[in-house]
Amino acid sequence: MKTWNEFKPQNEEATIHSLAKYMNQYVRQEWERTVQDHHEELLDTFDKIGEPAYGRYLMLLLQPLFNELADAGFVMKPGFIVPNSLEQWGPPEERERCMWCVVKKADGSPLGTLVLRVFHSHVKFDIPLAPDIFALEVTDKEAIIEAVSHAAIRLNHQYGGVLHQDRSGGQVKRWEYSAETGLSDYLKSGREELEITILDHALSRWGRQGWELTSVVPYEGRLIAFFKRPYQD
Description:
Shape: globular
Structural class: alpha+beta
Largest sheet: 4 strands, antiparallel
Number of strands: 7
Number of helices: 7
Helix content: 25-40%
Distance between the termini: 43 Å
């Protein structure tokens, strides 16, 4: 894997986008290895204190990268922290949290904002998908939240449709239910041809886990989607 000095554009000033691209290639190589190397520790942490186990995972995954970039002159404190985050998308087994970090140059001037998308389970310790990092040029908190709330920006235009997985079968007498509060965000693409594809992606994530959409209700300017699936012991 290339270091930042090997990866950065030659004779060009680094941008927030080139930095996000570099961090992504690191994360894609290391995310599963980090889970495997610290699996027992992370399981034990989740059993004892729950979701802070994912904070421990992110520290193990990203600290070497933060150290390298700090040596290169980037200021990324306090890093990706829960107060600078939103979590309102996806089923319990594949919940998505977006955490942001404003990056500054060595002289203190802002470079932009990095957004880390972390997929995790509320049911057990599990990282079902690779974390993903994308760049924003805005650094104001309200502007960051507005950008993250647009699915087309958050998904980084990398999804072109998802196959459904059918998990039905057998006679069912019991059900469990869950809700998605961020469904309307998937209709903010600003590009009509993308909206259906992005909405398909959002609903397919629930479908892959066996959830069935039962109703959609508007509430205070948002759409609340309700799902059910057969209860499994």
